Every structure is written in C-alpha cells, then in structure tokens.
C-alpha cells in the first residue's frame, strides 16, 4: 500500500483516503475550480465518494498514486490542517505516451494565487521517483494535459520542469458531456 507522506513548511501531502471525503467534496463542488475540468461540479456527496474511491490506491490499480494537499495549521490552538486540493497519478494515457503516467492536480479556488499548486506538484514529483516505493508501478515519464487557456496551470507544470509536447484540437470536453469542446496540450516530464 502507498503510505508515503511529504511535508513542507506550508503543506502536507497524504495518500488520498476516505477520511478526506468532506474536504474532497468541497473541492469537487467548486464550480470556479472545476472550470478546466472534464467534470461538472458534483451534486451529491455520494457521487464525490464514488470518484474518491476510484482515486484511492489499490493492488488492482498499482499505478494510482493520489495525495491530498493539506494546508498546515499555523499552530494556533484548535486550528487543524485543512485539505485544499489533490495531486497525483490519475491514469495511464496509453500508446500516445508509452511508459508514462498522467498526473492531475487541483486546488480549491479559495486558495489560488498563493503558490500551493506549484509547491504541491514539486513535492509530488520529488516523491514519485523516490526509490523504495513498494506497491507503486512507477513510470519513466509524467504527463499533464492542460487547456491552453489555463495559463496558471501551464506555469505550474513549467516550474516543475515539464516541457510542452503536442496540442490536440478538440482534445477534451470542459465540464463533461454537453460542455464546450476545447484544445488540450500535453506536457511531459522525463524521469531524472
């Protein structure tokens, strides 16, 4: 089982679990935060739980490696760390990027503009290729699919060392079925 945690001065990364359901639901109902997602905001906690269960590591899906991004408490009495986003491997992209894992990340829009996504992605990339990670099927490159209108997300992957590869016209549907068709750009980070 994946049980690796990471800590910075501001953030903790914890393997995603059902204990994160309430905060994950707040993220998955954030319409602003999901603007460039393939999903619409979730309408029920049951739908959110179903997705969360799919994103949690299991021996049947050894490539899954998703983490909760927690904003560390300031140390004030009664204040706890709070989940503000997710980062990790969500799928294997197939033939287009052989021996790659697709990463995704998202931060609740209340916490945008503070560098948390860049910090969390940098932490995750450092963790991903760390030796001795029993149970994780580690690939030789990470890929990210980004809408070219999402300039903030492009800056996040650039800071982590990803390089722009190819653009796909009509690459995905914003908000899922019935949403706007948009281009997507693949960004790649090779194993060091």
The oligomeric state is: single chain
Radius of gyration: 16 Å
CATH homologous superfamily assignment: Gcn5-related N-acetyltransferase (GNAT)
Range of helix content: 10-25%
Query: N- to C-terminal separation?
Result: 24 Å
CATH architecture annotation: 3-Layer(aba) Sandwich
CATH class: Alpha Beta
Order of helices and strands: EEHHEEEHEHEE
Calculate the mean pLDDT score and round it: 86
Overall number of strands = 8
Amount of beta strand: 25-35%
Secondary structural class = alpha+beta
Strand order of the largest sheet: 1-2-3-4-5-6-8-7
Low-confidence segments, ≥5 residues, pLDDT <50? none
Summed up, the helix count is 4
Quote the CATH topology. Answer: Aminopeptidase
Largest sheet: 8 strands, mixed
Using the alpha-carbon principal axes, give the shape: globular
Number of domains: 1
Structure description:
With 192 residues, this protein is α+β, with helices and mostly antiparallel strands. It has one domain (6-190): Gcn5-related N-acetyltransferase (GNAT) (Aminopeptidase), CATH 3.40.630. It is built from 4 helices and 8 strands; from the N terminus they run E-E-H-H-E-E-E-H-E-H-E-E. An 8-stranded mixed sheet has the order 1-2-3-4-5-6-8-7, with helices on both faces. Strand 7 (163-173) and strand 8 (181-190) form a beta hairpin. Helix 3 (116-128) crosses helix 4. The two termini are 24 Å apart. The mean pLDDT is 86.
């Amino acid at each position: 089982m994946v049980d690796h945690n990471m800590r910075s001065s501001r953030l903790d990364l914890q393997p995603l679990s059902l204990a994160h359901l309430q905060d994950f639901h707040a993220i998955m109902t954030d319409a602003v935060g999901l603007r460039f997602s393939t999903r619409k905001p979730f309408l029920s906690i049951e739908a959110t739980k179903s997705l969360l269960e799919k994103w949690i590591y299991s021996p049947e899906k050894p490539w899954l490696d998703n983490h909760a991004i927690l904003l560390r408490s300031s140390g004030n009495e009664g204040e706890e760390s709070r989940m503000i986003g997710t980062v990790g491997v969500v799928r294997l992209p197939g033939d287009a990027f052989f021996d790659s894992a697709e990463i995704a990340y998202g931060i609740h829009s209340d916490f945008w503009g503070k560098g948390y996504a860049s910090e969390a992605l940098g932490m995750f990339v450092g963790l991903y290729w760390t030796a001795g990670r029993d149970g994780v099927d580690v690939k030789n490159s990470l890929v990210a699919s980004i809408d070219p209108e999402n300039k903030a997300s492009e800056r996040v992957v650039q800071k982590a060392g990803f390089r722009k590869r190819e653009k796909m016209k009509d690459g995905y549907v914003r908000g899922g079925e019935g949403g706007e068709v948009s281009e997507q750009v693949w960004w790649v980070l090779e194993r060091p």
